[in-house]
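I'll show a sample.
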Amino acid sequence: MNVVGRFIIRTRIQDGITTVPEIALKYLRAFSGQYDHKLAQTEAHCYGWGIAHPTHSVTAYLREVVVDKPWWVQQTLEHAFYADQHAATELLRQLITEESLAFTVPLAPERDVTEDRFLLECLVGPDSKKYRPTVPRFWSTIEDYADEFEWDATVEEQLRTLVEETGIAKELPTDWTFQELAF
């Protein structure tokens, strides 16, 4: 898992998404439901780096499994933002505005959050200079790449508008940042 995740990221960064073999993405996707093997499921978050692949739709799979695997989708979506902000923004918008995807996620015994509030938390990591993706494990190159992450101004505005449209911004301070979306 670790090697495949590294390979996908390195290949995408160096040669572009079109050079990432579809079989590598299918391999990571296969571990998305490995609840009995948490490490494999976590390493599979690198699947998000395959967003906008020309022959393998990461977007379609994440939409398909978001209700059954919300935690995995949220973390994978965060990785997708590092890979392609525009494609990840479009996917996040689809997930949040798709009425048939209404669900709640338990955060604590007495606290559930709606799907839009839950999914928007994926913006916290890319927005932080202190946080870096933790998978693939033991690979400093991803930390170097994550240090370079900057929001595209258009994307940032689209995401801020999306947060406003959900009504969640009413619960945040007036001068809110994506950091306020953290649980």
